[in-house]
Prior knowledge:
The complex is a heterodimer of chains A (177) and B (446). Chain A has helices spanning 13-25, 42-46, 53-79, 92-122, 153-161; strands spanning 3-10, 30-34, 83-84, 87-88, 143-148, 167-173. With 177 residues, chain A is α+β, with helices and mostly antiparallel strands. Chain A has two domains: 3-36 and 141-173, Alpha-Beta Plaits; 53-122. In chain A, the strands form two sheets. Chain A has a four-stranded antiparallel beta sheet, with helices on one face. A two-stranded antiparallel sheet of chain A has the order 3-4. In chain A, strand 3 (83-84) and strand 4 form a beta hairpin. The radius of gyration of chain A is 26 Å and the shape is rod-shaped. Chain B has one domain (6-24, 93-442). Chain B has 16 helices and no strands. Chain B has helices at residues 6-28, 34-46, 51-62, 69-115, 125-132, 135-150, 174-178, 185-214, 220-247, 260-285, 294-325, 328-340, 342-359, 369-395, 404-425, 438-442. In chain B, helix 4 runs parallel beside helix 15 (404-425), helix 9 (220-247) crosses helix 10 and helix 12 (328-340) crosses helix 13 (342-359).
Amino acid sequence: MASKVIHAIYNDDDILLNAVKKVRGEHYHIEEVYTPFPVHGLEKAMGLANTRIAITSFMYGVVGFCFSIWMMNYMMIQDWPQNIGGKPSFSYFENMPAFVPIMFELTVFFAAHLMVITFYMRSRIWPFKKAENPDPRTTDDHFLMEVDGGSNANEVAQFLAKTGAVEINIIDKDEDH
Amino acid sequence: MYTLPGKLKLLAIVFMVIGAIGIASGFLNTPSNTEEVKELLASHSEDGHGNATAVHEETKESHNQVGVEESHENEHLEHALHAYQNRPWSAFYVAAFFFFMLSLGTLVFYAIQYAAQAGWSPVLFRVMEGISAYLPIGSIIIFAFLVASAMGLNHLFHWMDPDLVNPESEHFDEIIFGKSGWLNTPFFLIRIAIYLGGWNLYRYFSRKKSIQGDSSDNLTWFKKNFKMSVGFLAFFIVTETIMAWDWFMSLDPHWYSTLYGWYVFATMIVSAITVIALVTITLKAQGFLEFVNDSHIHDLAKYMFGFSIFWTYLWFAQFMLIWYADIPEEATYFVTRIDDYKLLFFGMLVTNFVFPFLVLMNSDFKRVNWFVVLAGIVILIGHYIDVYLLVMPTTVGEYWYIGIPELGAVLFFLGLFIFVIFNALTKAPLLQKNNPFIKESKHYHY
Lengths: 177, 446
C-alpha cells in the first residue's frame, strides 16, 4: 500500500520558515525540508533535536591531543633523540614547549576531520551516492517541504497552498522508501 | 533611566576609603634606609616568606672569607631598599593601569562594533559608553603617575636616570644610551600626552554623537561615529603598541619583544569584554536592560572564550620563541618570572586559559549568567596577575608580596571604577534611540 506525501515548493526562505511554523502549528507532520542553502533557524522551527556533533568534536580533540603527546614522545624522546638548538631531547617534560604547536595542530586536525567524517556517516552521505532530493530545483533556487499526507492529502495540500507555496504536488510514495 | 542604587554607591565609597588607607599605609611603611630593610628581611624569614633572606644569607656565607662581606652586604641591602621603595608605587601603577585598560579595551570594542556596523551589539552600546567613562579619570591618574616618575619621585623607570646616558659617568650604559633617542623623558611624556589625548578625544566625541543621535531625525551622527571609529582604530593599534613599550617594556630597557604590544592588547581586550558582560549582567539583575536577551550574553561569553585563547596564543608565542632561542639577553625576562614568581606565572595560565576554556566551551553554559560571572571573575583575577607580572618582576624583583599595598590599590581603583561607570550609566537612557541597527539588535537571536 502506498501513502501520499505532498511536496510544497517555495521560492523564498522567509516564506518557507513561516510556512514551516504554520504547518507545525496545525500538527501536520513534516518529513523533510530540502533547501539550496542552510536556512538560519529552520532546524528550530522544524523542532529537530539539537546536534550532538559538538560533543563528538570535543572527544576527537581529546583523542588528537593524547595522540600528539604519545607521538612526539615516541618520535623525539624514545626512538630518535636529537639535539636541536642546544636542547637535547632526553626528557619529555623539558622539551614540552617545542611540542605544544604539534599538540595544537593535531587536536584541531583530529577534531575537524573526524567530525566531518562523523557528519557524513550520520547523514548517510558517501561518494557516488544517488541524491535523495526529490526535485533538482532544490539545488538551485527553490525550497521543498515534504509533508505527510495522512488520511486526507487533498485537505493538507489546500492548507499548504495558503502558506505561500508556488507549486504543490501530491505524490504516491512507496512504503519501502 | 538608570539610577545609581544607594548600596552600590556606598560599596564603591567604602572600597575607595579602605583602598586609600591601604595605599597610604603601603607608602608609610616603606623602609627609608638600609637599617630598616635589615629588620624587615629578618622579620620576613619568620613568617615563612623567607625566600629573600635565604638568598641574602647565602651570599653572606659565600663571601665570608673574602673580606668584602661588608661592602657586598651593603650593596645587597641597597638593592633591597630600592625594591621595597618601589613596591607601593608599583602596586599603585598595576592597579591604576588594570582599571584604565578595562575602560580603554571597552572603548576599542565599542569602536569595532561601529566600524563593523555590527547588528547584534547596539543594545549594549550605552553599557560600553558607561564603562569607557572611566577613561578620562584613568588617563589623568596614569599620566600624573608617569610625570611623578619623570620627576624622580620613584625609580620604576630605571632609564630615566641621567647618569646612565652620560658617557662620563661610571654608570654609563651603552645600550640605554643607544635607545635614548626614543627613551628620553621629554619625548616620553609628549607622546603619552598625544596618545592619551587621542583616545580621550575619540571617547568624548563618540559619546557626544551617540547622545545627539537620541534626538536626531537623520543618520549623520551615525555616519560620523562610523568614520571616527575607523580612524580611532587605526590610531589606536599603532599607539597601543607604543604604550606597551613605554609603560611596561621600558621598565626593563635592555629587553625587548616584538609582539609585546599585542600581548598587552590581548590582556586588555579580554578583560574589557569580561567587564562588559559583568556590568550587563549586573544591570539585568537590577531589573534594567530588559531588551538584552541571553543571546547577547552568549555572544559576549564567546568573545571571552575566544580572546582567552588569543591571549594564551600570544603568551605562548612569546614564551616559546625566547625559550627555544635561549639568548641570555632575552631569556632574562622569563628567568626572573619563573625563578621568583613561579606560582603566579604558571597559575595565570590556569585562570586565563584552562579555566575559561573548560567552563565556557559548552554552548549552553555561555547563556547561564552565573557561569559567565564565575568565569569572568576568574579571568579578571588572572589578568590582574598578568599586569602584575608585567611590572613587579622588574621593579620589585624577589621582594614581592601581595599584601596591603597591592590589595589597597586594587580596592581603591575598583571603588573608583564602579563609582564612575555606574554614575555615567545614569546620565543617559540605557538604549540608543535612533541607531539603525537597534531593531535588529533587539531581535537578535542566536
